[in-house]
Amino acid sequence: MIPVAAAATVAANANEPGRSADLAPAHISAHGITVDFTLGGHRQRVLENIDLSVPKGSLVSLIGPSGCGKSTLLKVLSGLITPDSGDVSVDGVRPQEAAKTRKIGLVFQDATLLPWKNAIENAAFLLATADETIKPSDAMSRAAAMLRLVGLEGAEKKGPSQLSGGMRQRVAIARALALDPEVLLMDEPFGALDAITREEMRECLLDIWERTGKTVVLVTHSIDEAISLSCEVHVMCTSPARIIETIPIALPYPRTEECHTDPVFLAARARLRSLLIESHNRGQA
Amino acid sequence: MSPVPSTEKLPPTGSVKAGRFDNFLPPAALSVAVLIIWEAAIRLFHIPTFVLPAPTAIVASLIENRAPLAAASKATAIEVLFGFVLAAIVGVVVALVIVRFERFGRALYPLIVLFQNVPKVALAPIVILWFGYDLAPKVVLIVVIAFFPVTIDMMAGLQSVDPSFVSLMRSVGASDGKILMRVRIPHSLPHLIAGLKVAITFSVIGAIVGEFAGANEGLGYVIQFASTQLDTPQIFAALIVVSVLGLLFYYVVEYAERLLVPWAPKFDPVHGNG
To answer: What does the pLDDT read at residue B81?
Structure first.
């Protein structure tokens, strides 16, 4: 049974500013991940020999050109795809095991809300599915607490069609958080939103992360998003898909608008840009 | 925490009412015009009643034969009701079996499509031969004609679930059965209703075909009997009753749609899909 609003009560100082990523133990680790897809009888390597280590309580980004396998890697971490070789562990167990004990919260680019359920029912839905023993009223009150956490108080009874894109994505985040997962895996969660809403959602995510101390893996193709949110950015490239560089972002939290002009931010941006251009060109060749 | 943005404003309701009246008026005016021209043509060219009766003759027959027509409507309505409900059940079960048991489904589906290409009207004499002259052969005929659109639409609904939903359910360790019950089936309901709308129309056709092939009551029987008597006004009167009956059944299904799947996108024939 999950204590209601447990996530919200996690001490905010769990994420002390400027903490070094390599001090915390790895919460998600992947070693030598290789994934092959068979498309039209043609076997293709999607991920090659990926090593990834995500410290507990950190927020890391995976960035790379389209089709580089970022989403596939996230699916491997969430247990939706079993790699052809290599080991993955989430909170010390295989992803499939972690999924069964509600350790994994997923957020996709589309909010994917059930149209026949309102905001709070959508937020409670996955928890009620995952835990058959939970009382419906407990699931609902937990969902209500998570909707408050994502700033949707007062919109509980609204249907998905009455919510804006940003609000729908907030419901999707609340739905993942309602599971009280160990890790939050997000696949381009703000990719379908307009620029201003995207800014808002970044703030919202940082706020949630600072308050809950969850380990977050964010797939994105926005350089600014990766730098302004993450402790570390893993840069991926295509053919073969692998992580070419890991860039630590040594900016203190909480991060504000001003950090966009910080020399650290600008240096990271310049480095990321050149890496992405390089891997983009390699992909074209 | 950033404030919650307000939702978009809905269009004012006043325009909807005016729109409904505008939608109703043109077809009504056109119908009246056609009826007047029809009546005038019959009188002007002295067309015999057994060839084409005037609208007034049809109405007179309708009033004169109201008791037998009402009895025939009741018989046909019962056939349609039983047949439609059974067709819906068979259609849903077949769709669920095909989707849930993929291997068996792959064997079954082509056979169903093949069977669908047999003209059902041609089956009527065999069904009468097997099941007699009562309710049973009509119900069987209706099921055979009407289950297919239910199966096809239900399958489309079950299979068109966003893969992200399936991923989401799997990410908490949900089984295929649970995904079917909690996501696929509710998601398929608007599609199912669309199939039922087609099925209810087919059911009326099925009942009439069954009555043509062999019956001693029902609107199909009335039409056939009247044609042997060259009582064309009564044929038309029965046709009107069949159409009204079909329309009533159709609107019952549409009403059920509003109750069961209020989230389904509404189709507006004038302004496109809303």
So the answer is: 96
Residues B43 and B95 in one domain: no
What's the pTM? 0.79
Nearest CA of chain A to the CA of B267: how many Å?
16
Number of domains in chain B: 2
Residues B73 and B23 in one domain: no
Q: Give the ipTM of the model, two decimals please.
A: 0.80
CB-CB: which of B5, B167, B173 is closest to A164?
Answer: B5
On chain A, the residues whose CB falls within 8 A of the CB of B1 are 151, 204, 207
Looking at residue A17, its pLDDT comes to 42
Contact at 8 Å (CB) between A265 and A226? Answer: no
pLDDT of residue B35: 95
Do B8 and A130 count as a contact with CB atoms less than 8 A apart?
A: no
User: A22-116+182-284, what's its fold?
Assistant: Rossmann fold (3.40.50)
CA distances (Å), origin B161, targets A40, A90, A112, A114, A166: 24, 28, 10, 10, 22
| Best to test chain B binding among A112, A149, A150 (most B CBs inside 10 Å) | A112
The answer as to whether B12 is a domain residue is: no
Distance of CA B26 to the CA centre of its chain: 25
For chain A, what percent of residues have pLDDT higher than 70? 90
- Chain-centroid distance of CA B220 in Å reads 17
